[in-house]
Amino acid sequence: MSVSLESLIEKPLVDPALFALDPSVVFLNHGSFGACPLAVLEFQSELRQRMEWQPVQFLQRDLEGLLDDARVSLGDFVGADPDDLVFVANATAGVNTVLRSIPFEPGNELLVSNHEYNACRNAIHFAAEVRGAKVITIDLPFPVKSEDEIVEAVMSYVTDKTRLLLIDHVTSQTGLVLPIKRIIDLLQERGIETLIDGAHAPGMVPLNLRELGATYYTGNCHKWICAPKSSGLLYVQKDKQEQIRPLTISHGANSPRTDRSRFQIEFAWMGTRDPTAALTVPFALNYLEETVEGGWSQLMKRNRHLAITARRIYCNSYNTPIPSPDSMIGSLVSIPIFPARVPECEPGPYYIDYWQAELMKRCSIEMPIIPWFTYPDRLMRFSCQVYNFLSQYDLLGEGIKELIDDQV
Predict the structure, then answer these.
(1) 132 and 194 share a domain?
(2) Same domain for 67 and 180?
(3) Residues 139 and 209 in one domain
(4) How far apart are CA 140 and CA 149, in angstroms?
């Protein structure tokens, strides 16, 4: 007997106690740094104990085979040949790796969207400055009416000087699932390479990197796959792997080995580090597959349905136009908020909006308020993961109403 998605969003899909999260906090911010199940952390701890028990055995004799096995498991999940995948610390590291490796030339134009994650926009500007290339910023709309608007906007910036496009699969600030397959195909026809920032995609939306056709694709495993922090992936097409070098050049650079590609040899060893986050990815994938009835397919469908439902309820309650079609939503949602001017937050290493701080202080709700560069200047972004459920977003609505009333 099948269970409806409507009933699945009324309560957590799994017991929240399976996660290491503070139970006193309504955590609607999985999108920022993820959250890891206790069982996954325990498995990582076992790997660490094994490494510390005999470091030479683990790092010099066992690690390469363990990484191979992990890449096989990850490749099955994201639809990629494991030889085309390497582990990196996170998607930002993956973006930097590619941009620092590609031989740009003066006069090349590098496209990036205005929705791109700030760290990665910084990376493409740095790479362009070093090599004399030029960064062109694509103005993608938000709110947006259709996928066609996105495709048309991207293609309107393409010229015969365009060398590369860096674009999100799922945008960080605005929570849009972009039509990247259509964009990749159009650019491929013109011989233009694509670097897809898939920070949020693995575990949120179905992936098949073979069919997608991106030249380069990087993503996080610590977000929606719920693996430990410092587990990210980088996919590179086979004919481009020779030019992609890790950010840390180490022993593999002059290795005489011929049993595997230099791409794999170099990325497998970048100095002494803790590789257990990457090695835990297969366990995390299997854990959620077995814990959730219906596995990953049901998990993604349910989380997406929760996001769409919660967004619709919130927008209806506050007479806010829905800012994008449901077809462009995964399990991350951003909604423009229209408050009166609020006090500035004290500067710090990371921006934390006044409302975000107040939601946590007054209501124990953890949810980011994100600065945006057009009116109304700020977006509220909430996440939907297996430990979330519909009534939590009612609490969010009450908290937002209290803050709005305070500004009147």
Answers:
(1) yes
(2) yes
(3) yes
(4) 8
CATH code for the domain in which residue 280 is found: 3.40.640.10
- Give the Cβ contact number of residue 219 at 10 Å: 30
pLDDT tens-place string over residues 99-114:
999 999 999 999 999 9
Q: How many domains does the chain have?
A: 2
Same domain, 267 and 360: no
Whether 244 and 306 share a structural domain: no
Task: Name the E strands within 221-318.
Answer: 232-236
- Structure confidence at residue 256 (pLDDT): 94
Q: Which domain holds residue 64?
A: 41-285
The pLDDT, as a whole number, for residue 348 is 58
Return the H-helix or E-strand segment holding 210. helix 209-212
Could you give the CA distance from residue 16 to residue 369 in angstroms, rounded to a whole number?
24
Better-scored residue on pLDDT, 126 or 370: 126
DSSP 115-168: TS-HHHHHHHHHHHHHHT-EEEEE---SS-S-HHHHHHHHHTT--TTEEEEEEE
d(CA 233, CA 224): 13
Cα(first)–Cα(last) distance of the chain, in Å? 50
- Average pLDDT in the 379-408 region? 88
pLDDT of 341 over the 60 cut? no
Strand partners, 380: 335, 369
User: What is the pLDDT confidence band of residue 349, given thresholds at 50, 70 and 90?
Assistant: low
What is the predicted pLDDT for the residue at 81?
98
Mean per-residue pLDDT for 393-398?
Answer: 90
- 334 bridge partner residues: 381
CA-CA distance, 226 to 214, in Å (whole number)?
24
> Nearest 5 degrees, angle CA 290-CA 291-CA 295?
60
Percent of the chain with pLDDT over 70: 95
Which strands sit side by side in the sheet containing 232-236, from one edge to the other? 85-88, 232-236, 216-220, 193-198, 162-168, 109-113, 134-138
149 in Cβ contact with 121 (< 8 Å): no
Residue-wise pLDDT for 117-152, tens only, equals: 999 999 999 999 999 999 999 999 999 999 999 999
What is d(CA 57, CA 315) in angstroms, rounded to the nearest whole number? 56
